[in-house]
Amino acid sequence: MADNLAAVTDDTFADEVLGSDLPVLVDFTADWCPPCRMIAPVLESVAAEQAHRIKVVTLDVDRNPQVQARYGVLSMPTLIVFRGGEPVKSMVGARAKAKLLRELDEVL
């Protein structure tokens, strides 16, 4: 697991994501997903550079089916930004860092 990316689980999701003071970008990921591996360094970089604005976490959908089902996540990677305990933006698929930062700017 990357240094700046905390892993959350079905058990810790409510505390770590819904209860966070900062907005949280959740990366719904899976070990078998090549695009998930492609976006991991992008998320790591964003987590390091934007730590004052947003928290970035990963959730392994194979090991944590409850959160995946609750938010209807069907494709990996799906990135959902939560603010104040509510999902405010959802993005599907890997993307370049510049595009991700632009999308985050819309909701931060």
Give an overview of the whole structure.
Strands 1-3-2-4-5 form a five-stranded mixed β-sheet. It has four helices and five strands. With about 110 residues, it is an alpha/beta fold. It has helices spanning about 15-20, 35-50, 65-70, 95-105; strands spanning about 5-10, 25-30, 55-60, 80-85, 85-90. Strand 4 (about 80-85) and strand 5 form a beta hairpin. It is globular, with a radius of gyration of 12 Å. Helices cover about 35% and strands about 25% of the residues. The protein has one domain (about 5-100): 3-Layer(aba) Sandwich (Glutaredoxin), CATH 3.40.30.
Features of this protein?
alpha/beta; Glutaredoxin; five-stranded mixed beta sheet; 5 strands; 26% strand; globular
